[in-house]
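Researcher: I'd like a structural prediction for the single chain below. Treat it as a standalone chain; there are no partners to consider.
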Amino acid sequence: MTSGDITTGRDAAYVIRVQVERGRRLDIALGAALVGLDPRERAFAHDLAYGTTRMRGRLDHLLAKHIHKGLASLQQDVLEVLRLGAYQILYMGSVPDYAAVSGSVDRARELKGKGAAGLVNAVLRRVSEGGDGDDQFPDWTTDPADYLSTWGSHPRWLIHRWLARWSPEEVRSLVDTNNGRPTTFLNSLDQSQDAAVELLAQAGITARSVQDVPSAVRLAWSTPPSEALSVLPGSIVQDPAAQLVVRYMDIDPGTKVADLCAAPGGKALAASVGASYTVAADRSESRIRMVRENADRTGRRVGCVVADAAHPPLVDADVVLLDVPCTGTGTLARHPDARWRLRPESVTELTAVQDRMLEAGATTVGRGGLLVYSTCTLEPEENGERIEAFLNAHPDFTIENSGSVSSNFIDEHGYLSVLPHEAGFDGSFAARLRRSE
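Model: Treating it as a single chain, here is the predicted structure.
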């Protein structure tokens, strides 16, 4: 199916899911597939594609019960038809079961012929009859790892990694959070939190302030972000976890700030509110263009440059932010496809990149300056362990706490530590490293 063949939300969701399984990012595949669809079909495709991706592990467990030779025996496009059909049956109350089955059978017949259509028909009817009750999954009390990887729809290796650090109940809470629909938040750069909520209310948009994050505004799920931004043009869409990183930086007035991994630019724009000047650098020319566009839209003074954080284009900055590439396990609710792209070795591969960027950042910050390292991952190898290794090699840097963030988000080391299942939004980590005079 080509883009010219996409006429319904179901068509779009199928194309998106096939592309995601081939390695394309979900948000990019979604944006490309929705062009030209009316709002109702766009919403249907979004819910179906994101929901199926989020629940892929659970759906696969339920489907496998009815495939004699296992899911590995199926061709990928037929498997995607089954996943999409099962999700509609189990989790989209607006779709009657018969319509989900019929549409899936038609798609299978179109793709692979009569045999595939018959298989899809039989399997989805059994899924409809069996449901998704606890009796369909491993026992939670005796085998929490199996339960959390099937019902919880997360890779087994990741569940085992988390169970080594947290109790089964805590991991279940995290998995529940990751499987929920994420909320959209704004950072009101040029308005107080209360003023932003009031302006939105005057425009008929329901919004709430976020406790302990003074710049964060929570939008209702039904509110398109574009509508809110039209009311608050000086705002950006930004999760409170990212906003907390900038607050944790605690930027003094008159400070020069360099964000070396800036795209898409939210933290650089937020940092520019307190800084005298902000430089935003990123290795991707197309992504740094996004930063420039957002800076122009919000009226923020930000200098944009294409540069690799491993080879920074400046020296003697007052504050350097390193928002490094990471596994992103704190953002799996917002990016559900990421959980399936990650591999056990991803953590180790990324720590080498993070170490190189820390070394480069150390040469960029001036004497007496501040180096802020941040991630959106929950994995200790990418967070505290990286800081410990850095400090061992750089005795001229010390950890410094921040007085600008609620103690609810500061751990015993003085690091910023935000957990999704505790905070109700994305996870993040940050460390303030002060260079000696």
